[in-house]
Specification:
Layout: H1 2-6, E1 16-18, H2 26-30, H3 43-59, E2 63-65, H4 72-88, E3 97-100, E4 114-120, E5 127-128, E6 131-136, H5 138-144, H6 153-160, H7 175-185, H8 188-193, H9 201-207, H10 210-223, H11 231-234, H12 239-242, H13 253-261, H14 268-283
Parallel strand pairs: 1-2, 3-4
Antiparallel strand pairs: 4-6, 5-6
Length: about 290
């Protein structure tokens, strides 16, 4: 999937591959049941597949980031913040950020300069090398959620919860009710401030109860991404130098050796074409 994304044109200027760090995060301190509904990672994935993926990514000389105490989601949100701040300070031209992930938690980051590439199995209209993906944008979100802006997705999850991460939400409130309430009262705080005026009995009772208010606030703390990880934690130098997408310094010898070792020989011509395109881009030639 990663190679497919790198084959999308125009070529990306910057690339980063972000992994979850081992151990607990601040969310586990807030709520001990956070993600407790998930099955443990299978041993073969943890000890064989994931290390091999990291080995291949590093051999491609792509930027890899893991930050202890934070989820990959928070790291990505913080990279986005740094990139947009750099753009605002005139250090970069207009940046268009693509987040390659199916994870709906990233809906809250969508905006004019940030969109998602979500892999799909059924929709073949936007496929690259046989793998289909959907472009999910600010506009798509508004169409799906009654005109709400993407930042309101945090409040939707605060009310409705998220079974994937075992975020509780407020008992009796689902996504449709959450959207309806947000359209009427604007945000979570507006809903809580006007809870006694809510027409639906179940939602009104839940949101006027101490438990409901507490769960809504807790859930918002769990689902809101932390975009304030400092740059000196994220980068060895700075975003522009760390994340620049280029041909490996060893001319790709280590990656091609790994392809032979793992019998990924069919990938060799594709990555060689990719490197040729990178060379052309670096010298200002058209491929």
């Amino acid at each position: 999937m990663l190679l497919v994304l790198l084959e999308i044109r125009p070529l990306p200027k910057y690339v980063s591959v972000v992994f979850d760090s081992k151990g607990k995060t601040f969310r586990h301190d807030l709520y001990k049941e956070y993600k407790q509904n998930r099955q443990p990672t299978p041993d073969d994935l943890r000890t064989e597949v994931f290390p091999r993926i990291k080995e291949l990514v590093r051999a491609m000389q792509l930027n890899v980031i893991e930050v202890p105490g934070y989820e990959a989601d928070d790291v990505i949100a913080s990279i986005c913040r740094t990139a947009l701040e750099s753009q605002g300070q005139g250090k970069e031209g207009r940046l268009e950020i693509d987040l390659a992930t199916p994870d709906k938690d990233f809906f809250q980051l969508l905006g004019p300069d940030i969109r998602m590439l979500r892999p799909q199995k059924k929709n073949r209209d936007s496929s690259v090398n046989g793998i289909a993906y959907d472009v999910y944008s600010d506009r798509t979100f508004r169409e799906d959620y009654g005109g709400l802006c993407p930042t309101k997705f945090v409040d939707i999850q605060a009310l409705a919860g998220d079974t994937a991460d075992n975020v509780p939400g407020v008992r009796g409130i689902g996504p449709k009710t959450a959207v309806k309430l947000l359209l009427e009262y604007e945000d979570l705080q507006g809903i809580l401030d006007n809870a006694t005026s809510i027409k639906g009995k179940v939602a009104r009772n839940a949101l006027t109860s101490e438990e409901g208010v507490s769960l809504a606030k807790l859930s918002k703390s769990l689902v809101e991404l932390d975009c304030k990880i400092p740059d000196d934690v994220l980068f060895r130098d700075k975003l522009e130098s760390d994340l620049t997408f280029k041909k490996p310094d060893d001319e790709g010898r280590e990656l091609l050796r790994l392809f032979r070792e793992y019998d990924f020989k069919t990938l060799t011509p594709r990555v060689e074409t990719l490197w040729q395109d990178l060379d052309h881009a670096a010298t200002g030639e058209s491929s």
